[in-house]
Amino acid sequence: MGSGWRRTVGNVRSFVGNSMGGLTGGSNLAAWVVAGTLAYFLWVKPSQDLKREQEERAALAAASDRYRYVEKRKPIPDPQETGLIYGKKNTTKKLED
Questions:
Q1: DSSP 8-state code for residue 78
Q2: Which residues contact 41 (CB under 8 A, 6 or more apart)?
Q3: Which residue ranges traverse the bilayer (predicted)?
Q4: How much is the average pLDDT of 34-43?
Q5: Region 37-48: what's the mean pLDDT?
Q6: pLDDT value at position 48?
Q7: Whole-model pTM?
Q8: For residues 63-76, b (16+ Cβ closer than 10 Å) or e, as one string?
Q9: CA distances, 66 to each of 54, 60, 61, 73, 97 (Å)
Q10: pLDDT band at 54 (very low <50, low <70, confident <90, very high)
Q11: Structural domain boundaries of the chain?
């Protein structure tokens, strides 16, 4: 009964090792490093660069638009205590006895 968990751990290790192509030790680590590096430079970095370039184009297009709306005045703060544009002020009256 004590060797049941050892057999399970051994089966899991064997399955993981076989699913990785049978590479073990340093060669396994090196293969994962190479695969990760290739994945980064082939998929992740180009998509990040494309996104950054699109954002820069959008910023340039927005800056060069002559007809865009630009706020010239600061908004006037609402004098009510609640901060709402409508309704009553938030007044709390204390009853003095």
A1: P
A2: none
A3: 20-43
A4: 94
A5: 94
A6: 95
A7: 0.42
A8: eeeeeeeeeeeeee
A9: 20, 12, 10, 19, 65
A10: very high
A11: 26-64
Structure tokens that stand for 44 in this block = 């992740």
For a pLDDT cut of 90, what percent of the chain falls above it?
Answer: 26
Q: Quickly list H helices, the chain.
A: 4-19, 26-39, 45-63
Cα 83 vs. chain centroid, distance in angstroms?
33
Q: How far, CA to CA in Å, does 31 sit from each of 13, 36, 37, 94?
A: 18, 9, 10, 75
Per-residue pLDDT band for 10 (boundaries 50, 70, 90) equals confident
Q: Of 35, 40, 37, 9, nearest to 17 (Cα)?
A: 9
